[in-house]
Structures are given as structure tokens and as C-alpha cells.
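Last lecture ended with a question: if I hand you only a sequence, what can you say about the shape of the protein? Today we answer it with a concrete record. The protein is SDR family oxidoreductase. Below, first the input exactly as provided, then the predicted structure, then a couple of comments.
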Amino acid sequence: MGIYLVTGSSGDIGSDICEKILENESNSILGLDIKPSRINNTRYKHIELDLGNLKEIEKVDWEKFNISTVIHTAGVYKSKLIEEYDLSSITYTVNVNVISIVVIIQQLLNKSTNTKLENIIMISSTAEKLGSRDPVYSLSKSAIVGVLKSFEKTLNCRINIVSPGLIDTKMSSENQTIQRKQYHVNNTLAKRMGKIEDVTNLVMFLLSDESSYIWGENIYINGGML
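The predicted structure:
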């Protein structure tokens, strides 16, 4: 069995996914994040790097890792209007949210003879469908759908997207006012914010054999917001 690669592995969703994967004692994980990890497990290796700086991705010794599954949870949400962005912030957001996964897959295929990709899961957002007051975030999450459609044509492995709505994470707490949160909640059928485990349970299903006939899908998980 190959190693799981998890980007954004120190985030709320990324950490929870890693902990669930490690519950199976045969699994090992390589985590990538700009922040340190809270996970203390000998089967978890953490590399601190900035996915917004694509050169750092190229410096990883990918040949050392037999990666079979990639889970891209890394994301930046600056919650800015278009006039509040500068060029460097636009570039950084797009790099973290979408370009980084393209570069990672490229590096795995070009530099690691051990790599045999079996499953790729990418986290997008309901914003790719509805748009967002933050257009750079929305464009980056929409681009992930284009990456999926292209990877499907060239990579012989299972690839799916999970697109959450408003989830109760640290990132949403830092970037959403109480009023905006209530607005989103009012526009769901569930009348609540999503929980971290709502998303991670779906990811774990997509990692399991029970979902082996689900290929090329973008699965929305937003309490009926759409």
C-alpha cells in the first residue's frame, strides 16, 4: 500500500482527515503545510513548506515517497473584494488553492519512479458554483474543476472533488462575520453550518472501496445551499 499525501494537513479538515486515515495501522501519511502539525504518530511525516511558493514544492525529494493517494485540502480564503487585492495576493491565493496540486502531480510523475497514483481527491467549494464576494477565491476553486476534467483524460486513476459550503472551521471563523454566517445558514435547507466531520466523512468514503465506482465527480456538501 502506498503513502497518502495530504496538503493543508495542519488545517482543521486536513488534520481530521489525517487522524482518520491513521486509525488504520497499515496507513502512512506525508503531510504538507506551512504550519506545524498537531499529529504525533510515527506513521505521519510532516514537511513544512509554503504551497504558495511553487519552488518549495520542487525541492521536495519526491523519489523517497511511494505516493498512491493525494488529498488536496490546502486553501487560502482572504475574504477580499476585488479592489482590495494586489497582484501578489492574487497570485498567492491561486498558487495555494489550485496551481500547487498541478505542480505536485507533475513532480510525482516526473521525479518519483515509485509513484503509482490510484486516487486523487481535491477540495473545491460551493463558491465555484455560486460565485463569491471574493472573486479570486471563487476563480481558484472553479479552476480545480478544470483540473479534474483534464486529469481525467491523462491520468489512469480515480479523481473526485468535494465542494463544501460554509463549514465551521478556524478559517471561516476568521473570515466570516456573524451576520455573513447567519446569511449562509439561512440559505441552507439544513439551517446550520457544516461540521468538519461532515466533510471528512465524505472524503473517507471516497478513499474507501465502497466508492470504487465513483469517478470524475464533483460532490457538493452544503446542507442544501444549492
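Comments.
1. The mean pLDDT is 93.
2. The chain has eight helices and seven strands.
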